[in-house]
Request: fold
Amino acid sequence: MVIIRLAWRSLWRNRRRTIITVSSIALGITLALFLISMAEGMYKKLIDDAVRMNAGYVTVENKEYARAPSVDLVVPSVSAIESLALNIPAVKSVKVLIVGQAMISTGSGSIGVGLIGVDPALERALSPIARTITQGRYIQEDDERGVMIGSGIAERLELEPGMKLVVTCNDSTGELVNEMLRVTGIFTTGMEEAYGYLIQVPLGVARRIFSIGPDEATQVGMVLSSPDRQNEVIALLKKDLAGGNLAVLPWQEVMPDLAGFMAVDKGSNYVFQGIIIFLLSFTILNTILMSVLERNREFATLLALGTSPVLLRCQVLIETMFIGLLGCGLGLGIGGSISWYFHTYGLDLGSLFGENLTITGFAVDPVIYNYIGVDLFAWLGGLVFLLTMLIGLYPAFKSTRFSIVDVLRSR
Amino acid sequence: MNDLIRLEKVVKEYRDNGVPVKALDSVDLVIEQGEFTVVMGPSGSGKSTMLNLIGGLDQPTSGLVKVVGKDTSVLSGTELSRLRLYKIGFVFQAYNLVPVLTAYENAEYVLMLQGRPASERRERIMGLLKTVGLTGLENRFPRELSGGQQQRVAIARAIAPEPDLVLADEPTANVDSKTSESLLDLMMQLNADKGVTFLFSTHDPAVMQRARRIIRLKDGRIDADEENPRG
Reply:
């Protein structure tokens, strides 16, 4: 079609201007794609670490537990729930947790801690704590008195692997209980809330300390094959567990601080990208409008020859489309390549933030792996392309808003 | 003979700094199919205005302009575009070729808009470019052609769809006398062979000598309308 040919060649009439505009779009997309993919990569890693260390992407707990966490608010028939969950294809593994408050004491002093009962075998595969042992070894299922402690606790109470400590707490019946445990290992996650506050014991030990039944726990967490399947798993579990005293919660409700931080951070990130794209839109508008206004005589001739105004506006929109496609294609290509590199090899922020990078109290690996997904490419490319086309509407409208006679008469 | 163009009591008024100026004042004119007519007169006499009204590029302030049997004042923008596309060819003083299209593509443009098949377009345009003496220059862009060559392309573009009417606004103003003669030869030949009606506005004596009818405009009125025995 002749207007496509005209549009393409007109685009290169002012080569430098077209190259600058296409480059501006490409640069904007490259920057936005890289920053968003890095942020998404960081969020995904942060969520993944947090849910693995805590109660999974989906958590089953007593309906009252979230309001006032207490060891007497238990989930009964844990093994049945576990089997039920493992039958859902999206569920990769099930974490059974007993979480309570306690006081630990040694000859050097006493501090309050969060005591978590875990399945050591599963935790070794899932939790970042098991990967950050600095001394000793991780607890085992048959450790009758074994306990993992954070490096902050070890420092304050002058503890080392093999040394003893006394746990004091209220059990599920409200009785004050004491239990002597022996340190098997010390971990440090880079997150003070973890290494300065948490201790981990095998599930059996936690049940014994808190007087919780063998098939009971405070939380049952599901680790999923993909976070995208969270809603599907929640719906299935809610259906299966309906009528009981249990709540099926997404991680966002179990860890509202983290979810809140991400919402705010994502929001500010998108506002920043929005400003870049908004500024970019002026460059696009300027280019297309200038290219239309300086061709009034040509457009007047084409109209005189019988070209319909609609066809002429289409030509301007096709030129806009070419600019958009070239800019978006180039930007997605360059931005995608950079993001792919950091998706594969990671971006080490250790030199900027140190090895102990934490975000809203959650430890983050200083090596960030960018997120690469078709969805990100599609919406970012689609958004900028759509914006370019919308910007092109005004110059297209302007392209036929003149008197043919006046323009042809002008020299 | 059929009336191709009919102007009845046509008035065209412009406002110049708020003052109304009559470019055409109560003009009556009939031009029949196959005529080779020149409109002449001093600058500001209304020649270009008349051609613009006949070409549907402008509307009269009052009066009737009928082209190919159609009253241009009642046609919509789209209908006027179609009238120009299928019935009228334009040749401009400044050639007005599309700079990003080659000579061949410029000549082909209207045929493409009309949706003619590629084979027909090719055959017709190559033949026309040969007729206007541009064989071998098909792939040159306007900037690579002389003024005369560009005007030949413009003429080829105007006559390629075999319109009923070609309106030529001072077509020889920017070319040398030799080129002017050859362009006129070409247009006369097309008039004779294909029956294409030509209406020129010009100051060029060479054009006036060839015209069969000369209309003289003065102050927006037809001062004289005469047959040219030498045309």
Chain A touches chain B at residues 1-2, 5-6, 9-10, 13, 297-298, 301-311, 403-405, 408-409, 411 (CB under 8 Å). Chain A has a mean pLDDT of 87. The longest helix of chain A spans residues 15-53. The CA atoms of residues 292 and 398 of chain A lie 8 Å apart.
